[in-house]
Write a structure and sequence with these properties.
pyridoxal phosphate binding; 7-stranded mixed beta sheet; Aspartate Aminotransferase, domain 2; alpha/beta; 12 helices; Alanine--glyoxylate aminotransferase 2, mitochondrial; Aspartate Aminotransferase, domain 1; binds 4'-deoxy-4'-aminopyridoxal-5'-phosphate; pyridoxal phosphate
Length: 458
């Protein structure tokens, strides 16, 4: 433990010297000292089961011995080269990463964060298409840099300053909140309780959303567009899933207008969705550009953009793309070890098996409690939407969600939050979690719901 700074001093320093918008999840902020696989330890030695993995980032477990060993080895050899010099680890990593993507996605650009990756993807799309306009969903989160703020359509991140020129939001085909439901239409072991008139093999909701997409194309953007960004499942917006087949049709419409299709795999990539390594594969589409960050480095700051040789050429013939830290040997050593661990420990398969197990258990809680409106997701990317009641779908008031969240923490379980009103609990642990840990987490969550119902009844 770090004895040097008392909890009260940390709070004082935070107030004086750190960004005032860095809000803590809990009234008494959690001060962490150590992590071990899926466990975190605070300054008093209390143990928490980490079911949000540093916001969907620690993909293979905190301080994984193989990843640590790779970092330590490299630490003593060479930290930094900058992209003007070559290093075998960089080249090995680019080869390994590109082997995980289908043809023709074979050219890797290494950067340092998800926002940077999406900034670069925007530039690529514009350089390649010779157009400006880019479409993204309402509710999407693609970064907080001045460029990506245009793509991010979550109100609290927007600034009343000019930004995002050429970026147009379009309606999110959200099965749970949208006007057309879609009870059979999402790719999840758990279907929504929202009724719709679709048959299992015919999604009318999807057709309605495609009409909305066409409407954006004909009313809000130029005749030729640069591209379309989509997360395969929206993370920050509360694990929002689209009707099956939507992305496939949307990609075709974008390409008809000369645009390129970008899959933001920052949260969904690296096996988290279980059935596939990449989220776009679950939609049966082939993007032109894929961006990735977070889980790529298990918490080490690194990110990547992978694209086709043609698009890479369109960018590099127009500019000298340079990035001092992107793809430094430390990051590549870590990234390579992460890929090896995912494979050696069958973590994609574990995401599928343990994620499905958890979803089915949580669906029982949905049926048991009136305030659990929806349980959704795929693999180890799960959302639990809290509502006033199942009929209205109105969000459970924030103070009530806060209390349940806090109660879970007090019982040793850390989960995330998302959605426009912060009404959705998000679960995205390291991909190595086990079924007994899921049993513990679901039991804690159930106890928090029971406590809540008892408080309400008083
Ligand atoms: N894309 C998605 C889908 C994200 O969830 C995030 C981060 N929440 C980003 C991009 C931006 O990543 P970073 O914070 O590393 O800039």
């Amino acid at each position: 433990r770090y004895q040097s700074l008392a909890y009260s001093r940390v709070l004082e320093i935070h107030k004086q010297h750190l960004s005032p918008v860095h809000t803590a999840y809990f009234p008494e902020p959690l001060l962490l000292h150590q992590g071990h696989v899926e466990w975190l330890f605070d300054h008093e030695g209390n143990r928490y089961l980490d079911f949000f993995s540093g916001i969907v980032t620690v993909s293979v477990g905190h301080c994984h011995p193989k990843v640590n060993a790779a970092a330590q080895r490299q630490l003593g050899r060479l930290w930094h080269t900058s992209s003007v010099f070559f290093h075998p680890l960089i080249h090995e990593y680019a080869e390994k990463l590109s082997a995980l993507l289908p043809e023709p996605l074979k050219v890797v650009f290494l950067v340092n964060s998800g926002s940077e990756a999406n900034d670069l993807a925007m530039l690529m799309a514009r350089a390649h298409s010779n157009s400006t306009d880019i479409i993204s969903f309402r509710g999407a989160y693609h970064g907080c840099s001045p460029y990506t703020l245009g793509l991010t359509n979550v109100g609290i991140y927007k600034m009343d300053l000019p930004h995002g020129m050429g970026c147009q939001p379009t309606m999110c085909p959200d099965i749970f909140h949208g006007p057309w439901g879609g009870s059979h239409c999402r790719d999840s072991p758990v279907q929504t309780i929202r009724k719709c008139s679709c048959a299992p093999d015919c999604c009318q909701a999807k057709d309605q959303y495609i009409e909305q997409f066409k409407d954006t194309l004909s009313t809000s953007v130029a005749k030729s567009i640069a591209g379309f960004f989509a997360e395969p499942i929206q993370g920050v917006n509360g694990v929002v899933q689209y009707p099956k087949g939507f992305l496939k049709e949307a990609f075709e419409l974008v390409r008809e207008r000369g645009g390129v299709c970008i899959a933001d795999e920052v949260q969904t990539g690296f096996g988290r969705l279980g059935s596939h390594f990449w989220g776009f594969q679950t939609h049966d589409v082939l993007p032109d550009i894929v961006t990735m960050a977070k889980g790529i480095g298990n918490g080490f700051p690194m990110a990547a953009v992978v694209t086709t040789p043609d698009i890479a050429k369109s960018l590099t013939k127009r500019m000298l793309h340079f990035n001092t830290f992107g793809g430094n040997p430390m990051a590549c050593a870590v990234g390579s070890a992460v890929l090896e661990v995912i494979k050696e420990e069958n973590l994609q398969e574990n995401s599928q098996e343990v994620g499905t197990y958890m979803l089915l258990k949580l669906a029982k809680l949905r049926d048991e409690f009136e305030i659990v409106g929806d349980v959704r997701g795929k693999g180890l990317m799960i959302g639990i939407e809290m509502v006033k009641d199942k009929e209205s779908h109105q969000p459970l008031p924030r103070e009530e969600v806060n209390q349940i969240h806090h109660d879970c923490k007090c019982m040793g379980l850390l989960i995330g939050r998302g959605g426009l009103f912060s009404q959705t609990f998000r679960i995205a642990p390291s991909m190595c979690i086990t079924k007994p840990e899921v049993d513990f987490a679901v039991e804690v969550f159930r106890s928090a719901l029971i406590q809540h119902m008892e408080r309400r009844a008083k």
